[in-house]
Amino acid sequence: MAVPPRPSADQRFPDARAQQLAALIEPTVNAHGLYVEQVAVASSGPRTVLQVSVDFEEGTDTVDLDTVAGVSEALSVVLDQAEKNDAAAPLAALDNYDLEVTTPGATRPLTEPRHFRRNIGRLLEIDRTADERSGGDAAMTARLKEVDEEGVVVAEVIPAPKKGMKPKIGPDTHLSFGSIARARVQVEFSHKD
Description:
By secondary structure, the chain is an alpha+beta fold. The protein folds into two domains: 9-102, GMP Synthetase, Chain A, domain 3 (2-Layer Sandwich); 113-185, SH3 type barrels, CATH 2.30.30. Helix content is 23%, strand content 32%. The strands form two sheets. The chain has a five-stranded antiparallel β-sheet with strand order 7-6-5-4-8. A three-stranded mixed β-sheet has the order 1-2-3, covered by helices on one side. Helix 1 crosses helix 2 (65-84). It starts with 15 loop residues before the first helix and ends in an 8-residue tail after the last strand.
């Protein structure tokens, strides 16, 4: 899997500037029923972008574009007001910046128990740690069935030996969070249980 790791809870705001901005914007994001996944300020040449990634904290619903647009508009107002009152000190040094509000995306890496809970029922690509491979492959494709305090219960999906045949479904298996090196949702175009 060539997907970069997703920030864990303690890496959502990578520097002091992001932490200050997060404190400023979290109340507005929370008022929209969402959770701030990550805040970052990225520069590329003369362009600076304030990136805010939002998602639902629990459940399996996805954030729609209208909600993202509403959050973006509300954050623009909050940031404009904060700049006038010097509350947005981390942005004061910038001549201008672009606000980019997004969701983490369908194929984002899953790093926290709540990320897994939000994807129950979905097909995952899972890389297991070297200690947990039991002589088998490091990677597996599996349907996420349950999430508990220690890990996840999955049913491995074994590819069909011939085209047109259905894949085999393995038994339910519990994987501890510590045994999962990397996991992400595999996009499916249709799924029937």
